[in-house]
Amino acid sequence: MSKVGLITLDLFFSGGQYSEETINITVCFSDPTIEFLTFNYFLMDAEGQRVDCGKQEILSDQFKKETTFALPLSKTKIMQNKEQYLVKDALLLRCEYSFSTGDILEGIERIDFGNVSSKTQNVIIEKQTAFNTERKLIKHSISLSEDFKKLYENPTLSDVELRTKTKKFHVHSAVLCARSTVFNSKIGNDMKDKLNKCLEVCDVDTDTLRE
């Protein structure tokens, strides 16, 4: 964990005399390398359950200035339901953020805020050390695998049909060619002039082809 502060959160009340007091959060940034940041915030109720208070997506051109937004629950609403929202007479706020310095998500940080009252509560969120290369590759490999699975499960845009002795498979020729030099040759040479894009693969077991 780096000791360099990434974000400063400032919590304060606004309104009051002629309107309801709202709880506001001001976000200040101190890392110029951040390109994009997603900020989720929740109230923790007396049972430890999260009450979703919203999500903010902030672009780099907003980082030069403070960004302020209000919680959806007013002070009056919270006090009227203090048995639900206050834990030992304190308001507990959980914040989660993810940020990117360009191409790859750098990390996710979670932190709890307690004892929020009419006084301003300042909290420094420290920058999390970036994920190492291996963890990044694993994460993106999983995502890519899930994307290929969706392509397989949705045959709408498929352009080739593979037929075994017992089953038909609707597939995408570009993916098939990239995954197999044999199919690349068959599709490129045997099917380029065919209107019926169908390949007979009777010598391949159905379960093997599915995998």
TrEMBL record:
Residues 158-211 form the BTB domain. It comes from the Eukaryota. InterPro entries: BTB-POZ/Galectin-3-binding, BTB/POZ_dom, SKP1/BTB/POZ_sf. This is TD and POZ domain-containing protein 4. Pfam families: BTB.
